[in-house]
Amino acid sequence: MKINIEDFDWIFFDCFNTLIDDFDEHGDESGLGSLPSLAVELGFFVSSAAFVAAYAHARAFRQDGRETLLPERLTHALSLTSHHHKVGEIAHAVSRMQERWEEEYHRMIRPTPGASEMLTYWSARKPTGVVSNFFLPRRPESYLERFGMRSHFRFVVDSAEFGYRKPNHRIFHHAFAQARLSVTDARRVLYIGDRNDLDVRPARQLGMRVLHFNRSRHRSGVEATIDGVAAIYDWTDFR
Ligand SMILES: [Mg+2]
Fold it and tell me: Ligand 1 center to residue 224 CA distance, Å?
């Protein structure tokens, strides 16, 4: 799609499955890898599905827009087992699971195709920032650094570091502050992300210009673009 460069002064990007891909071969972006089977191996659940259900519960536990960190999510999920475990056993299992997660996740992540070239083009023309959900602080920034993309951005905001997660408006307000913009400047920002619930809807509510990065060419189970929202399917479309 052709963007009119006069229409905006900043570009805000989502991070995962927008700049860095972390979905697996089934299109799943939970990032859990083999943790469900490890939870079974460690004797907490009888099936991977039972762990996944407990984890989903632990993840959605907070209704106040705050981020829940990975160790907290795992501790909560394991405490939902019907098997009896002592507190120390849960803590030990959580650290085993976190170690496993670190190994697997670092191998799984890769730059989104075309993201680096797109950033080289746009960061020479507009100031850019990142607004990311993640369950460990400062990780989006360090992963962008690992893939040579960090230097393109004026700021990287993440939910674990800031405390609130998308779609809560506070994290977007925090990004405006990083850009030295006020909320009434929202129309000066072009926001690009892959999720309707976490990116497109809140960014529209706040009055930003929105571009949906529709990943359906690369990934199964992607929601359709919302009517009336501009979309791109590959980074090469965004110039
Ligand atoms: Mg995303």
Answer: 15
pLDDT in tens, 182-236: 999 999 999 999 999 999 999 999 999 999 999 999 998 899 999 999 999 999 9
Kindly report, residue by residue over 82-141, the tens digit of the pLDDT: 887 777 899 999 999 999 999 999 999 999 999 999 999 999 999 999 999 999 999 999
**C-alpha 14 – ligand 1 centre gap (Å):** 6
Q: Distance, CA 43 to ligand 1 centroid (Å)?
A: 33
Overall fold of domain 5-22+110-237: Rossmann fold (3.40.50)
All structural domains of the chain with their residue ranges: 5-22+110-237, 35-108
* Separation in Å, CA 237 to CA 18, 122, 126, 209: 14, 13, 17, 17
pTM of the predicted structure, to 2 decimals:
0.95
